[in-house]
Structure formats: C-alpha cells, structure tokens
Specification:
Blueprint: E1 3-8, H1 9-19, E2 24-27, H2 34-40, E3 46-48, H3 53-67, E4 71-75, H4 79-83, H5 85-93, E5 98-104, H6 123-128, E6 133-137, H7 143-155, E7 161-167, H8 168-172, E8 174-179, H9 193-204, E9 209-213, H10 221-231, E10 235-237, H11 255-262, E11 267-271, H12 276-281, E12 297-302, H13 305-310, E13 315-318, H14 321-335, H15 342-357, H16 363-373, E14 379-382, H17 386-395, H18 416-426, E15 432-437, H19 438-442, H20 448-453, E16 459-464, H21 469-478, H22 493-500, E17 503-507, H23 510-523, E18 527-532
Parallel strand pairs: 2-3, 2-4, 4-5, 5-7, 6-7, 9-10, 9-11, 11-12, 12-13, 14-15, 15-16, 16-18, 17-18
Antiparallel strand pairs: 1-8
Helix pairs in contact: 1-2, 1-7, 3-5, 3-18, 9-14, 10-14, 11-15, 16-17, 16-23
Bound molecules: thiamine diphosphate.
Thiamine diphosphate binds near residues 385, 412, 437, 438 and 465.
C-alpha cells in the first residue's frame, strides 16, 4: 500500500528508507542534510551519531554483516562521503548490503564548478567507481522509487553498498510525496539443471571433495550442511564464510586443517567465495591465474556471473547459493556414496592443525581465553593485527554464522573497532568483542565517546605492543633490520577510556584476560581491556596463512 503525504525531500528519503526496513541509522549531520536529520525526529528510527564519518559507514557495515539486514548511514557530501569511502570500498569487498544517504550542492550550482560547500566534481560518478551504484534524486516525488532501488540493489545479487544523493534545496523543498512499498528482492537466476548434472558427475567420480564458503553462503547454513553431509566433505572458509558449518562440527574445518587436507582434494566446491585462500594464499599471490592449472577440479556456485570469468571453474553454477546447494545435495544423495573414512581423516587433520596453531604464541593462548568465555552466538570482530591475523588459522573456532565479522580483501586497518560497535548496536542481546592492535584502534579511538554516549556494550580488547608489529617484523626480516615508522608512543589506554566514561582495565596474561572479559561481558557495558605486551613478542602468523606446504610438513615457526 502506498501513502501520499506532504514531505520535504529529506522526509521523503527517510520515509522511503523506513519502508525498506530501516530502524537504525548511523550518521553525522551537516547543512545539506539537515532536512533528513529533522525528519528523523519522532520517526522511531534509532539515530546513532559517531565522531567521524568513517565510523558511520563502518557501523552500518558491522550492522549488515552481523545480521544480513541492510545497514544505513548518512553523511554530508564531498568530504563526508570521502571520509566514509574506505569503509565503502571495504563493504564492497566483503559484500555488505549498505545504503549511503547524502546531499549535494544546491541544484542551480550542479556542474558549474563554482566551488559551493562540499562540492565534488562528480560525486555519483566517483562513488560508482567504488561501490555498486549511486543515484541523484532530483525531486522529493522521486525519492521513494530511487531509495527503493538503492535498497534492492544493495541486497540483491552480490550484495554491496549503494548511495543516493539529493541537492541542498531539493532536500529542503516540500512536496506531495507518495511513499511506495519496498520492492521485492531482485530475483535470483534459476539454477541451471545441466550445470548441476555436470557437477554431480564430477562429484560422483571424486574421492575427497571439499567445500569452501564465502560471504555468499552466510544465508545458507542448512543447505551447505546438507551438501556437506551428503558428500561427507569438509567445509572450510578463510574469513567471510566462517561459521556456516560450526568449526567444532565433524565436517567444519578452519583454514590450517583445510590446508592439511588440500593436497588430496580432487574436487573443490566454492560457495559464494572468491577462493582467495587456495589460489592466492596457498598459491602464488603475485601471479594471476584465470583458470587454475593445477589442483582439484573446480565447481563454483556464485550469484555473480562475472566471478566465473575472474576465476574460471570446470563447472560454474550461477545461482543463489541456498537454492543451488539444496538441489545439488538432493542429486548427490542419489548419485554419490560418500567415504566412510572421511570423518576420521578430517579429525586427524584437525589434530595436526591444532598442534601447529598452538605454536603461534602468545596469540593462540589469548584467543583460547576469549573463546572460553564468548558464548557460541557471541560475535568477534578481528582487526588487522597479530591476534586478528591469528584468528584466520582456526586459533579462534567460529561456531555460528555471522559471528565472525571480517574486513575482506581490502584489509582496511582501522575497520575493526567501529565495525564492532555497529555489530553490537544490531545485536544488543549478544556478546560482541572487538580484538584490535593499538595501531588500528587509534584509527577510530574517538568512537569510545560513541560507545559511552549510546551505552553500546561492546568489549574492546586492545593488544598494545607499541608498534605496527607486522611492519616492524617485515622490516626486521626483509630490510636488514632497518626499522622506520613502525614503533610508537601510545597514550595510557586505561586512563584514556576512563576519561570517555568507558570501563577499562589492563591485563598481561591470557588467564587474566579471560577473567576480565568474563566480568565485562557480564557487566554488559562499554568496556576496554588493554593487554600489555612487549613489541615483537608475537610469533608470525603468516607461515600458517600463506601455506605452500601442508602443516604436517612445516617446521617450527620462526
Ligand atoms: C588502511 C590501511 N593502512 C595501512 C595498512 C598496513 N598495515 C597492515 S597491518 C598494520 C599494522 C597494524 O598494527 P597494530 O594495529 O598495532 O596491530 P599489531 O600488528 O601491532 O598487532 C599496518 C600499518 C592497512 N592494512 N590498511
């Protein structure tokens, strides 16, 4: 049902976004988007104003990744949008449905180059190079249609960010507006039966198939599990596809255990994944191979047809992963007799992996302490850092879908803390933990104020090693020990957090961390735990991430 009302352009955008399910918005106000903020008054929409625009976008991304629902943020055009742009390209890379609502110079200044407030030469064009799509809304009456399109495209196909903008005067103008219902989701392509048959033929001849998931399988845990059980195949993931099959399930394996099984794998099924792990991390990251020359036969299930060109499979199934896995599982059950020994082989690989991971200290011990107190449905957001990288290996088993919110291929330092705040806003009833280094945390440290102001009960664990430890290690090993720009002087994190009104304490050992985390999760308040470390104490996680050999053939880590 559509409703006609007299609204400003900003009001029309807000009502259209509400019709698309927006209940929370993250944003920083400014002159051009005042009417949009004004319309949020009394709308029932939860408004969270962070202290930097990058955080508004990261929070929307964390909201989206941890729920599967579209996250919405609003910022001023030009510098506001550019401040949010690292988060936008991160959300593009990790397939998060996010909608950006922004402004534009007054309509009579469009394209004049006169230098009006926040003017960018071609904002929608600039955005289209970063995200899925961007539109200008030229009148309040067009808002509903274009906002509907922005939401539909953000969530449809391969999800990602979209943006709409409206000129300053248009956003303030009042007009009769019809707010349409949200559009139905973009239809998924029908599953190609011939491709399914071809996949079944490959799988019928396979002895040791493996399933590798990405973000595109997060909505399909039941279907992936059905397929895995029909094949008795291990299910693995690098980052975005973690937890689809729990990593304590007999068939759920994290990356190091998967590497132990990889050399014997004869058919790989990629589900909603770019398959970075086997072909770029375990292969040569400097050499692009369109069609893998070595390794197992490749079946890919992906909703994005372009993926089949970027990494060409033997069988490509362009479809929604839930539908394709369900159908494939049904057919496989009739055609394939799964190996009885597979579960024992997987268990053995997990033991080998665990032994390798336990040498990755002190990170493995800290992660074990966190896992011990974080409930199964608790959410972890690992920042790019020594402890964060260690999570890629399986040192932190992921036990449920959407509980491990990662940065994806952009590797954007600084995403973690604000993204975790957004995840907590979306999951007030769940435990949410941010694991970050001191360097990455300081990219968004001001959001301690946001946590305090809105009572966002996120627990942030800052591993303080007074350095960009990764850079420091690389310089020490690869540049004759010449270090530059990799050590720093930090504030006193406990006093800093305290000054923001955030509960804070300092620990040194894994056991102390476990106790502190348990206490802070129980207190359900914004909290910071600093883990005080010396620079350079962490074992390098990279030998367990870029694994040219299976872990049972690796020596002790450096
Ligand atoms: C936007 C961005 N800038 C720079 C980098 C390069 N980078 C990757 S990890 C890292 C160091 C992180 O240091 P810190 O957060 O202190 O964690 P630590 O490794 O010390 O545990 C840097 C600078 C990046 N990945 N992304």
């Amino acid at each position: 049902m559509s409703i006609q009302q007299e609204l400003t352009g900003g009001g029309a955008i807000v009502e259209a976004a509400r019709a698309n399910g927006m209940t929370t918005i993250f944003g920083v106000p400014g002159a051009q988007i005042y009417p949009l903020f004004d319309a949020l008054h009394g709308s029932g929409v939860e408004v969270i104003v962070p202290r930097h625009e990058q955080a508004a976008a990261y929070m929307a991304m964390g909201y989206a990744k941890s729920t599967g629902r579209t996250g919405v943020f609003t910022v001023v055009p030009g510098p506001g949008v550019l401040n949010a742009s690292a988060a936008l390209c991160t959300a593009m890379g990790n397939c998060s449905p996010v909608v950006c609502l922004t402004g534009q110079v007054p309509s009579s200044f469009l394209g004049r180059g006169r230098g009006h407030l926040h003017e960018l030469a071609d904002q929608p064009g600039t955005l289209r190079t970063l995200i899925k799509n961007a539109w200008r809304i030229d009148s309040p009456s067009e808002a509903s249609r274009l906002v509907n399109r922005a939401f539909r495209e953000a969530a449809g196909g391969r999800p990602g960010p979209t943006a709409v903008e409206m000129c300053w005067d248009t956003m303030a103008a009042r007009a009769p507006v019809v707010v349409e219902q949200a559009e139905a989701a973009l239809p998924a392509p029908t599953v190609d039966e011939a491709a399914i048959d071809a996949a079944v033929r490959l799988l019928a001849a396979a002895k040791k198939p493996m399933i590798m998931c990405g973000a595109g399988a997060q909505h399909a845990p039941r279907e992936v599990e059905l397929l895995a059980e029909a094949l008795q195949a291990p299910v693995t993931a690098f980052r975005s596809g973690r937890g689809i099959v729990p990593e304590d399930h007999a068939l759920g394996v994290a990356s190091v255990a998967a590497r132990e099984l990889w050399d014997d794998c004869d058919v790989l099924i990629g589900v909603g994944s770019r398959l970075e792990m086997p072909y770029m991390r375990w292969g040569d990251p400097m050499r692009y191979e369109r069609k893998p020359a070595h390794g197992p036969k490749l079946i890919r299930i992906d909703i994005d047809p372009a993926e089949m060109q970027r990494l060409e499979p033997d069988v490509g199934i362009v479809a929604d992963s839930a539908a394709a896995c369900r159908l494939l599982a049904e057919r496989v059950r009739r055609a394939v007799a799964p190996s009885r020994e597979r579960v024992a082989e997987i268990a053995a690989a997990k033991r080998v992996a665990e032994a390798a991971i336990q040498r990755l200290q002190p990170q493995a011990a800290f992660l074990r302490a966190i896992r011990a107190v974080l409930p199964r449905d608790g959410i972890l957001v690992p920042e790019l850092s020594q402890v964060g990288f260690a999570t890629y290996t399986g040192a932190f088993p992921v036990l449920a879908p959407r509980t491990y919110v990662s940065e994806g291929f952009q590797g954007t330092l600084g995403f973690g803390f604000p993204t975790a705040l957004g995840a907590k806003v979306a999951n007030r009833d769940k435990a949410v933990v941010s694991v970050t280094g001191d360097g990455g945390f300081m990219f968004g440290v001001q959001e301690l104020a946001t946590a305090a102001q809105y009572g966002i009960g996120l627990v942030t664990i800052v591993f303080n090693n007074h350095s960009f430890a990764n850079v420091l290690r690389d310089q020490q090993l690869q540049f004759g020990g010449r270090t530059i720009g990799s050590r720093f002087q930090n504030p006193d994190f406990v006093r800093l957090a305290d000054s923001f009104g955030v509960s804070a304490r300092r620990v040194k050992e894994p056991r102390e961390l476990q106790q502190a985390l348990e206490a802070e999760l129980a207190a359900a308040r914004p909290a910071l735990i600093e883990v005080a470390l010396e620079a350079g104490v962490e074992q390098s996680p990279w030998p367990l991430i870029h694994m040219r050999k299976r872990p049972s053939e690796l020596g002790a880590p450096r």
